[in-house]
Amino acid sequence: MSEVYAVRRGLLRDRCAAAGSAAALVTRPANVRYLAGAAPRGAVLLLGPAPSEDTLLCPRAPAKDPADGRPDEALRQTVLPAPGGDPVVAAADLAMALGAESLAVEEHDLTVARHRAMGSVAPRLRLADLGSAVEQLRVVKDEEEIACLRIAAEITDHALGELLESILVGRTERHLALELERRLVDHGADGPAFATSVATGPHSGRGGHRPSDRRVEEGDFLSVRLGANYRGYRCAIGRTFVIGTTPADWQIELYDLVFAAQRAGREALVPGAAYRDVDHAARHILESAGYGEGLAPWTGHGVGLEIDEDPQLAPAAMGKLDACVPVTVEPGVHLPGRGGVRIDDTLVVRPEADGGPELLTITTKELLAL
Amino acid sequence: MSEVYAVRRGLLRDRCAAAGSAAALVTRPANVRYLAGAAPRGAVLLLGPAPSEDTLLCPRAPAKDPADGRPDEALRQTVLPAPGGDPVVAAADLAMALGAESLAVEEHDLTVARHRAMGSVAPRLRLADLGSAVEQLRVVKDEEEIACLRIAAEITDHALGELLESILVGRTERHLALELERRLVDHGADGPAFATSVATGPHSGRGGHRPSDRRVEEGDFLSVRLGANYRGYRCAIGRTFVIGTTPADWQIELYDLVFAAQRAGREALVPGAAYRDVDHAARHILESAGYGEGLAPWTGHGVGLEIDEDPQLAPAAMGKLDACVPVTVEPGVHLPGRGGVRIDDTLVVRPEADGGPELLTITTKELLAL
Question: Which of A12, A297, B104, B298 is such that its CA lies 20 to 30 A from the CA of A212?
Answer without folding.
Answer: A297
